[in-house]
Specification:
This protein is mostly helical and 44 residues long. This is SPW_0924 family protein.
Length: 44
């Protein structure tokens, strides 16, 4: 029973965090025009 309560509390906390972040919105700013490197450069 304690495991079920702990899982419920964790789920409620995670949901509250998601809703809070959604309400606050994205921070102001722009994305970088430069692409990110997705591969490791090869060394000779």
């Amino acid at each position: 029973m304690r495991a079920l309560i702990a899982a419920t509390v964790g789920l409620v906390a995670a949901l509250a965090l998601v809703l809070t972040m959604s309400a606050v919105g994205a921070p102001p700013g722009e994305t970088s025009p430069k692409p990110l490197l997705t591969t490791v450069p090869e060394h000779p």
